[in-house]
Design a protein that fits this description.
By secondary structure, the chain is mainly α. The chain contains 4 helices and no strands. The chain has helices spanning 3-114, 120-144, 147-158, 168-184.
């Protein structure tokens, strides 16, 4: 064989061997690089997953807090509305009762002034009718309460009896008004003292 062919064969063998060796090293390096990229991707995905889980947990907790706060506001609003309605019903009952007792007081005075006259019997019937209306209104006050107001209302009714002393009505009416005002005043409006 010719020396030139031999040199060419050696050069070709060296080129093939070098290329194969370079290919093995390149493949090995590429595999290490791919493994490193895969591991980095897994770490990044795990970190993103954990961050997403923490964000979802925080959003859940915030939602729970917000829902609890809204429920609390709704409860307070409902309680305040209920108390306002109760005060309105009581106020109406107390006003009606005062009106009926005033009418009964006037009927009592008219009857007492008519004693011994021809108007005595009709005035007595007016007084009896007015006292019946006082009794009906008193039942509503008893129902709406509270007990101190109902007690003061009973005392006011008793002051309208035909045999009651004349000065008792004004005192009983003032006591009823004081009890009614106390019952109608919201707890937050009472000054600390």
């Amino acid at each position: 064989m010719d020396e030139a062919v031999l040199t060419a064969l050696i050069a070709a063998g060296a080129a093939i061997g070098g290329g194969a060796l370079t290919g093995v090293f390149t493949f090995s390096a590429a595999k290490r690089q791919a493994d490193a990229a895969w591991a980095a991707g897994e770490r990044q995905a795990a970190a993103a997953w954990e961050a997403g889980r923490q964000q979802a947990a925080a959003a859940w907790d915030a939602g729970q807090l917000q829902a609890t706060a809204q429920l609390d506001v709704a409860r307070r609003t409902l309680t305040e509305q209920t108390l306002a309605n109760q005060r309105a019903l009581r106020r109406a009952a107390y006003v009606t009762y005062l009106s009926r007792t005033d009418s009964a007081q006037q009927a009592l005075s008219a009857w007492q002034n008519a004693i011994g006259t021809t108007d005595e019997a009709p005035r007595r019937r007016e007084y009896d009718a007015a006292m019946a209306e006082v009794g009906e209104a008193l039942n509503v006050v008893r129902l709406e309460g509270p007990d101190p107001v109902a007690g003061a209302a009973e005392t006011l009714r008793d002051s309208l009896a035909a045999n009651a002393p004349g000065t008792g009505h004004a005192v009983a009416q003032e006591a009823f008004l004081a009890a009614a005002r106390a019952a109608l005043t919201p707890a937050w409006a009472v000054p600390d003292g």
